[in-house]
Write a structure and sequence with these properties.
The chain is built from 14 helices and 34 strands. By secondary structure, the chain is of the alpha+beta class. The chain folds into 5 domains: 4-182, Rossmann fold (3-Layer(aba) Sandwich); 195-279, Translation factors (Elongation Factor Tu (Ef-tu), domain 3), CATH 2.40.30; 298-370, Alpha-Beta Plaits (2-Layer Sandwich); 376-482, 2-Layer Sandwich (Alpha-Beta Plaits); 484-596, Elongation factor 4, C-terminal domain (Alpha-Beta Plaits). Helix 4 (115-126) links the parallel strand 4 and strand 5 (130-136). The longest helix has 18 residues, at 506-523. Residues 55-61 and 553-561 have low confidence and may be disordered. The structure holds guanosine-5'-triphosphate.
């Protein structure tokens, strides 16, 4: 292969707000190009993880190579890179965009531009993409193409006059999208005779082939049998296989400039493949690497503990397997007095956390407790040292701390006018600072700076509820700033329960401390003695509840009955024991932890 001239290649991504129909459109394009037969065509080929399909969201960027005989009589190679739409995965969007020359900007013609439309399109503009607007869902009665075109021009600032109007659902006008790709996007550039430069876009673990690496060749040729060097580490590998996604893995002899494909090179772990790295020919290396990406940094951490202590090893194995397919997921072992042995895990955001948790329970059959999510604080000690704090339990004594900084985000929220008031109130409650407020028709666009720790708990849910689901939200990380943060410890019968401690702004500490004590009082069963449930900052108690002792007759034993029934009862009791955690003299049921941790701190 690679006898395809560059002029006949088009590399493109599809960018859209969640649910605007990106995956449906991708499926239609694949179908129209005959890459899969009707029978092979299951719904949404690109979203190939079960979980993605169920939730209808795209997590991992995927790619497909299509062959399109255009109206000009020539046959083109179209490489489609799917991109995730959710804000947690903005980083994966940027790396897919770096491998392409253009984007289809899909906007739901009945909804119009949303916060993630904007965030993604700005990334595409940064990546120097040619952008073709596509108005989807024109079959819906509420579709209003003229209004949405005007909106795209006004808010996004790109020409929308020639936007392609389609229905990905009915298949209307799909051909026009393919023609627009061929006529409006530029072909890739690159010199096939230059030393190899290929961008490492992604890598994942395939149970049959081992580590698969997705690459975009920029210069030179990438051939089977070649010795390649990773420019950031100098590590050398033999290329066992080169190929393209058609959409199944299809081996080829080589990939030339402008092409997107995969290599398989006996690489042991995904961790050895740095996304954004440049691959070059070990015998004739390039002088300079390509501009890479910044590494993805986890912004939210929480502890994951097995409910049954015996599952610890299984959890360790499962996390290792997940990590193979998801380099942005981090974990390290930790112990908690309350929860035993577990892991501290880092995620790109809350959705990422939820997805990993769900995969652990579904694919690996693990019952887990997750501690409250925490952002990464920067802690400056009085001795001048700075450390990153991932876990509230690790916060040193106040006398050792000079200052703490917390991460802020810049959030864009789009919302219909009638819900604006409620949204602004929510942002203010969460310590938000308004940066900008503009109108597009009857929709407001508010730009706020907010502390991330006010967002990780339930901001997204609250936003949806105060706007009846109409607000859309997107954010990017901003700066770190000094803040009055305190750690709130929870004490049961004078014993601190480490898994329940959390960090909050001083102004919110008391309310949240009080709420958690009240909740625990409801959840902890009465004991033979009276116990105190307290919240404290250092040695100062800020909230207290008292749980009365239980009356004696509740412990009355049950005699008689046949042996098997007794055995059953004993087994049941054993189960029950497993689900309790001993706290000094107090036993706290698992359900109390779960409920307390679920609370909005
Ligand atoms: N009526 C109508 N519905 C559509 C059309 N295209 C997509 N949909 C529906 O819109 C919903 C979202 O479509 P998806 O393709 O999953 O959206 P997406 O943008 O890929 O979403 P993410 O993968 O979560 O980013 C699905 O229920 C589709 O069936 C269309 O042209 N008309």
């Amino acid at each position: 292969m690679t006898d395809t001239p560059l002029s006949l290649i088009r590399n493109f991504s599809i960018i859209a707000h969640i649910d605007h129909g990106k995956s449906t459109l991708a499926d239609r394009l694949i179908q129209a190009c005959g890459a899969l037969t009707q029978r092979e065509m299951t719904n949404q080929v690109l979203d190939n993880m079960d979980l993605e399909r169920e939730r209808g969201i795209t997590i991992k960027a995927q790619t497909v190579r299509l062959t399109y005989p255009a109206k000009d009589g020539k046959t083109y190679i179209l490489n489609l890179m799917d991109t995730p739409g959710h804000v947690d995965f903005a980083y994966e969007v940027s790396r897919s965009l770096a491998a392409c020359e253009g984007s289809l900007l899909v906007v739901d013609a009945s909804q119009g531009v949303e916060a993630q439309t904007l965030a993604n399109v700005y990334q595409a503009i940064d990546a120097n993409h040619e952008i073709v607007p596509v108005l989807n869902k024109v079959d819906l009665p509420a579709a209003d193409c003229e209004r949405v075109k005007a909106q795209i021009e006004e808010v996004v600032g790109i020409d929308a006059e020639d936007a392609v109007e389609v229905s990905a659902k009915t298949g209307l006008n799909i051909e026009a999208v393919l023609e627009a790709l061929v006529t409006r996007l530029p072909p890739p550039k690159g010199d096939a005779e230059a030393p190899l430069k290929a961008l490492l876009v992604d890598s994942w673990y395939d149970p049959y082939l081992g580590v698969i690496t997705l690459v975009r060749v920029k210069e030179g040729r990438l051939k089977k049998g070649m010795r390649i060097r990773m420019m950031s580490t100098g590590v050398v590998h033999n290329v066992d296989q080169v190929g393209v996604f058609a959409p199944r893995l299809t081996p080829m002899d080589e990939l030339g400039p402008g092409e997107i494909g995969y290599i398989n090179a006996a690489i042991k772990t995904v961790a050895d493949c740095n996304v954004g790295d440049t691959l070059t020919d070990d015998r004739r290396p390039a002088d300079m690497p390509l501009a890479g990406f910044k590494p993805s940094v986890p912004v939210v951490w929480c502890g994951l503990y097995p409910i049954v202590a015996d599952d610890f090893e299984k959890l360790r194995d499962s996390l290792a397997k997940l990590r193979l397919n998801d380099a942005s997921f981090h974990y390290e072992a930790e112990t908690s007095a309350a929860l035993g042995f577990g892991f501290r895990c880092g995620f790109l955001g809350l959705l990422h956390l939820e997805i990993i948790q769900e995969r652990l329970s579904r694919e690996f059959n693990l019952d887990l407790i997750a501690t409250a999510p925490s952002v990464v604080y920067r802690l400056w000690r009085t001795n001048g040292a700075m450390e990153e704090l991932h876990n509230p339990a690790d916060m040193p004594d106040g006398s050792l701390i000079e200052r703490i900084e917390e991460p802020w985000i810049k959030a864009t929220i789009m919302v219909p006018d009638e819900y604006l008031g409620a949204v602004l109130t929510l942002c203010t409650e969460r310590r938000g600072i308004q940066q900008d407020l503009t109108y597009v028709g009857n929709r407001a666009m508010a730009v706020y700076r907010l502390p991330l720790n006010e967002v990780v708990f339930d901001f997204y849910d609250r936003l949806k509820s105060v706007s009846r689901g109409y607000a859309s939200f997107d954010y990017q990380m901003d700066t770190y700033e000094e803040s009055e943060l305190v750690r709130i410890s929870i004490l049961v019968n004078q014993e601190p329960v480490d898994a329940l401690s959390f960090i909050a702004h001083r102004s919110a500490a008391e309310t949240r401390g009080r709420a958690i004590c009240a909740k625990l009082k409801e959840l902890i069963p009465r004991q033979l003695f009276k116990i105190a449930i307290q919240a404290s900052i250092g040695s100062r108690i800020i909230a207290r509840e008292t749980l009365g002792a239980m009356s004696k007759d509740v412990t009355a034993k049950c005699y008689g009955g046949d042996i098997s029934r007794k055995r059953k009862l004993l087994d049941k009791q054993k189960e029950g024991k497993k689900r309790m955690r001993q706290f000094g003299k107090v036993e706290i049921p698992q359900s109390a932890f779960l409920a307390a941790l679920k609370m909005d701190h």
